[in-house]
TrEMBL record, chain A:
Protein's recorded name: Metaxin-2
Described purpose of this protein according to its UniProt entry: Involved in transport of proteins into the mitochondrion.
Lineage: Eukaryota, Metazoa, Chordata, Craniata, Vertebrata
Keyword Mitochondrion set for record: yes
Organism superkingdom: Eukaryota
Cellular compartments per GO CC: SAM complex
All residue ranges annotated as the Thioredoxin-like fold domain in the record: 40-134
Record's subunit section: Interacts with MTX1/metaxin-1. Associates with the mitochondrial contact site and cristae organizing system (MICOS) complex, composed of at least MICOS10/MIC10, CHCHD3/MIC19, CHCHD6/MIC25, APOOL/MIC27, IMMT/MIC60, APOO/MIC23/MIC26 and QIL1/MIC13. This complex was also known under the names MINOS or MitOS complex. The MICOS complex associates with mitochondrial outer membrane proteins SAMM50, MTX1 and MTX2 (together described as components of the mitochondrial outer membrane sorting assembly machinery (SAM) complex) and DNAJC11, mitochondrial inner membrane protein TMEM11 and with HSPA9.
Sequence ranges assigned to domain Metaxin glutathione S-transferase in this UniProt record: 187-249
PANTHER family, per database record: METAXIN RELATED, METAXIN-2
Location, primary (coarse class): mitochondrion
Gene: LOC107740585
InterPro entries attached to this UniProt entry: Glutathione-S-Trfase_C_sf (IPR036282), Glutathione_S-Trfase (IPR040079), Metaxin_GST (IPR033468), Mito_Protein_Transport_Metaxin (IPR050931), Thioredoxin-like_fold (IPR012336)
From TrEMBL, chain B:
Biological-process GO terms, alphabetical: mitochondrial respiratory chain complex assembly; protein insertion into mitochondrial outer membrane
Keyword RNA-binding on entry: no
Organism: Sinocyclocheilus rhinocerous
Protein known as: Sorting and assembly machinery component 50 homolog A
Gene (UniProt): samm50
Main location, first listed in the record: mitochondrion
Compartment annotation: Mitochondrion outer membrane
POTRA domain boundaries: 45-125
Keywords: Membrane, Mitochondrion, Mitochondrion outer membrane, Transmembrane, Transmembrane beta strand
Gene3D superfamilies: membrane protein fhac, membrane protein fhac: a member of the omp85/tpsb transporter family
């Protein structure tokens, strides 16, 4: 985000306290949302819970088009609309809530580096598996993405999204990779995270930060989402400290909503951790 | 008897699906032979042959219907009249550049003493005409390419294509029109289009890609059109500061609708008519033939014109529209209720106008020629001064209450305005207005434009 835009957001945001009716918008949970969007949405929800800020979750079929940047999730706070975790973190910081205040500069740089790692590796791998793997795209991604629309619009939009993601993969050089290589990349990413986490409860020892929220969002969603095969989940499961990390955060921040998330689970999401 | 030429009249514009026939000030040409008139009128004639010269790709079978009437003429004046009518019919097909009529006596072995030959000398339009323009405006430059193929397969089918490529938006339209041979008023057309629009009063940007087919046919004195339309609509926010209600509407939707229109138009001109009336009733039903948008839309429009003393014309008109389930109508601006900003009447959210589900609007105008009549008979005829009184209201429906509550809701908080101005007629299609308006009955939330207001458009209230 540019410097001027940052200053603009901070100035507007600092004016009012966090309202009760702040809402987070994401695609339809049962039928439409895909793995990558679900992970991003969960990351934002976790972050807000960690900050102790209340937010209502509202599912809309056109959430992706409502968002100012085209990416989900986005939050509607007062009369501000902010999308994506990075901007939301800045927005809440301007309102006076922050998880990373206790970190020094070195740690903050490290945190940013790991967040970039998750975004560049895990998120890209999720997108690759969803849209570039033909079998997954045909069986899961296209039918789910286009479910709210009627024929022939559903096919047009699904293929449009697929081409867009494939073009992006081309641009960053992932189109030459095979599925095996992508799984290998995921494994390496998890290894790096696992090593950093070690035996600590959170990445920066006692207090959770936005990095914890982001990692939890992605790993939890990978573990609880049913794809065409279980290989992705297996890669994550092989790192036991990451598994217990996910359990810990689920217990700490989502315990009271366990019943809700289980009843809302579908064929796609398995609800809670195995 | 030597050759008798029927005097050819000035060429009239062609009738196609988009233009109306400029029927005002049209007189039947009278032949010049005063002294011989009595003699000719009493002379019985028989039309033996009708020729059409100059055909290239046009197929003859459609033309036989248009000229068939000429054979029924009984005397010379009748022949001239019927030839003139046949000439009109040939011109309205839209495939000839001009048509000349030549009436001559028959010659040859089977010639009768009172036999006549009528020949229509036609010149076909070129197979393809194209145009290329560049346009600059609204922070956007664009290149517009137009192609027109009249008479594609020889039976008055018309194919038009327009493509606009701009720095911000691209749009195109392809249209195919085919009349039924012998009954030009019965026709069908297929259209394919993509249009984009920006609506700053609602902070909305819209892209429509659609296909439609329509059938038109006359029944007695009315003209009916049945149309099926499928549209893929994409809405987006024009600015980051758009209100959340508008943001919620963003996204894609598919509409598949059937509509029926009935028109009775006895006016002598579509722009600044002097006499006649217009009644137009339109229904549109969406959702039963696919798509994910359902609504029922009704539209009534009425206009009455009457010439008063001193060449002034009184015109009163009204419009009432209703749409169930979706707010699609906007009201206000120089083309509807004057004195208000463009589409700035009715429900709004944070400065963006959301539109309403029903509205009515009415107007009473008095058109007079310019004072002191400058440029009389020429350029000055394109101008008129007009005094107007406009009123209207826009609201959302409440489905729980009955029609009486709906009518009373439309009757409260009426916005109205009055004023005077100058109107300029552009060809037969559009109109420019410069008015001084005084808006009244303004409700909170409406944006007004009192004082001088300029408007340009095709359909005015």
């Amino acid at each position: 985000m540019s410097l001027a835009a940052e200053a603009f957001v901070s100035q507007i945001a600092a004016a009012e306290p966090w309202p009760e009716n702040a809402t987070l918008y994401q695609p339809l949970k049962e039928d439409q949302i895909l793995l990558s969007d679900s992970a991003s949405s969960l990351a934002v929800q976790t972050f807000l819970r960690m900050c102790g800020l209340p937010v209502l979750v509202s599912c809309r079929a056109n959430a992706e088009y409502m968002s100012p940047s085209g990416k989900v999730p986005f939050i509607h706070v007062g009369n501000q609309v902010v999308s994506e975790l990075g901007l939301i973190v800045q927005f809440t910081k301007a309102k006076g809530h922050s998880l990373s205040d206790g970190l020094d500069d070195v740690q903050r740089a490290e945190m940013k580096a790991y967040m970039e790692l998750v975004n560049n590796m895990l998120l890209t791998a999720e997108l690759y598996i969803q849209w570039c793997d033909d079998y997954t795209a045909t069986e899961i991604s296209r039918p789910r993405y286009s479910s709210p629309y009627s024929w022939p619009l559903n096919h047009i939009l699904a293929y449009q999204k697929q081409w867009e993601v494939r073009r992006k993969m081309n641009a960053i050089g992932w189109s030459g990779k095979s599925l095996e290589q992508v799984y290998e990349d995921v494994s390496q990413c998890c290894q790096a995270l696992s090593q950093r986490l070690g035996t600590q409860p959170y990445f920066f020892n006692k207090q959770p930060t936005e990095l914890d929220a982001l990692v939890f969002g992605h790993l939890f969603t990978i573990l609880t989402t049913q794809l065409t095969n279980d290989e992705l989940a297996e890669k994550v499961k092989s790192y036991t400290n990451l598994l217990s990390f996910c359990h810990r955060i689920e217990q700490a921040y989502f315990k009271e909503h366990d019943r809700e998330s289980q009843s809302g689970s579908s064929r796609h999401s398995k609800g809670s951790l195995p | 008897m030597g050759t008798v030429h029927a005097r050819s009249l000035d060429p009239l514009p062609m009738q196609g699906p988009e233009l109306g026939v400029q029927a005002d000030d049209m007189d039947l040409g009278e032949p010049e032979q005063e002294e011989k008139q009595e003699v000719l009128e009493n002379k019985d004639v028989v039309v033996q042959h009708v020729h059409i010269d100059g055909l290239g790709r046009t197929k003859e079978d459609i033309l036989t219907y248009e000229v068939a009437d000429v054979f029924r003429a009984k005397n010379l004046i009748d022949v001239m009249k019927k030839s003139h009518e046949a000439r009109q019919k040939l011109l309205r097909l839209g495939i000839f550049r001009h048509v000349e009529v030549v009436i001559d006596t028959t010659e040859g072995a089977d010639a009768l003493p009172n036999g006549l030959d009528v020949t229509f000398e036609v010149k076909e339009l070129r197979r393809m005409t194209g145009s290329y323009n560049t346009m600059v405006g609204n922070n956007e430059g664009s290149m517009v390419l137009g192609l027109k193929l009249p008479n594609v397969f020889g039976r008055a089918e018309k194919l038009t294509f327009q493509f606009s490529y701009g720095t911000k938006e691209t749009s195109y339209g392809l249209s195919f029109f085919k009349p039924q041979p012998g009954h030009f008023e019965r026709n069908f057309s297929i259209n394919l289009y993509k249009v984009t629009g920006q609506f700053p009063w609602s902070s909305l940007r819209e892209t429509d890609r659609g296909v439609s087919t329509e059938f038109s046919f006359p029944i007695w004195r009315t003209n009916h059109t049945l149309k099926w339309e499928g549209v893929w609509r994409e809405l987006g926010c024009l600015a980051r500061t758009a209100s959340f209600s508008v943001r919620e509407e963003s996204g894609h939707s598919l509409k598949s609708s059937l509509s029926h229109t009935m028109v009775i138009d006895t006016r002598n001109s579509t722009i600044l008519p002097r006499k006649g009336a217009l009644l137009k009733i339109n229904q549109e039903l969406a959702g039963y033939t696919g798509g994910d948008v359902s609504f029922l839309k009704e539209d009534f429009e009425i206009q009455l014109n009457k010439t008063l003393f001193w060449d002034s014309v009184r015109c009163c008109g009204g419009n009432y529209c209703l749409c169930l389930f979706i707010a699609v109508f906007y009201l206000g601006g120089p083309t509807s209720v004057r004195g208000y900003s463009m589409y700035s009447i009715g429900p709004q959210s944070e400065g963006d106008y959301l539109g309403g589900e029903a509205f009515w609007a009415g107007g009473l105008h008095l058109y007079t020629p310019l004072p002191f009549r400058p440029g009389r008979g020429g350029f000055g005829e394109l101008f008129r001064t007009h005094f107007f009184l406009n009123a209207g209201n826009l609201c959302n429906l409440n489905y729980g209450e009955g029609p009486r509550a709906h009518l009373s809701k439309l009757a409260e908080c009426i916005r109205w305005s009055y004023g005077a101005g100058i109107v300029l007629r552009l060809g037969n299609i559009a109109r420019l207005e410069l008015n001084y308006c005084i808006p009244m009955g303004v409700q909170s939330g409406d944006r007004i434009c009192d004082g001088v207001q300029f408007g340009a458009g095709i359909r005015f209230l």
